[in-house]
Write a structure and sequence with these properties.
0% helix, 60% strand, seven-stranded mixed beta sheet, four-stranded antiparallel beta sheet, mainly beta, 124 residues
Length: 124
């Protein structure tokens, strides 16, 4: 089991920045990648940043250039720096730990564990 605790959410004006943190504990060695998801009310979670233990990162176009994910493996923490926030970034944000899969040259992180989430609200 891996326990994940997010922190850093809150309210910010459009154009502002927020930093989310995720602290992992438990059998963290069982996971080799982490994903930040966000979820709008009534919709499924969507990944916004992925980081693998080798340092490789991935972002969808919706946040590329504005969000940056980083990890401190020694401290079992992952940070999501969010800049130039827009109203459409308003959502519940979740940290997840998972397993990396590779097929036909493509890789993805399948989430296994999730944190409880932290709310981000961007006022326009």
């Amino acid at each position: 089991q891996v326990q994940l605790v997010e922190s850093g959410g809150g309210s910010v004006q459009a154009g502002g920045s927020l930093t989310l943190s995720c602290e992992a504990s438990g059998r963290t060695s069982s996971s080799n990648c982490m994903v930040w998801f966000r979820q709008y009310p009534g919709l499924e979670r969507v990944g916004v940043a992925t980081v693998y233990t080798d340092g490789t990162t991935y972002y969808p176009d919706s946040v590329k250039g504005r969000f940056t994910v980083s990890q401190d493996i020694a401290r079992s923490t992952v940070t999501l720096q969010m800049n130039s926030l827009q109203s459409e970034d308003t959502a519940m944000y979740y940290c997840s730990a998972g397993q990396k899969y590779t097929r036909s040259g493509s890789s993805w992180c399948h989430p296994v564990y999730f944190g409880q989430g932290t709310q981000v609200t961007v006022a326009s």
